[in-house]
Amino acid sequence: MIEISGLLGLVLLVLVIWAIVSTVQSNASTAAKVIWIVILVLLPLLGFILWLIFGPRSGR
Which residue, among 49, 44, 59, 46, has the nearest Cα to 14 in the 3D structure? Predict the structure, then answer.
């Protein structure tokens, strides 16, 4: 059971890092970027779900 939760934690960490990088590269304002990064760091799982639904789109 510990191995599964550790693996899920690692997957969540990778997803949150990806969300932060994508947010920094987006065309959103600086304030919006900071708010999204704070949400992602303080509430990783809920923040990632909210970011998927409402977050800024990539600037590419």
Answer: 44
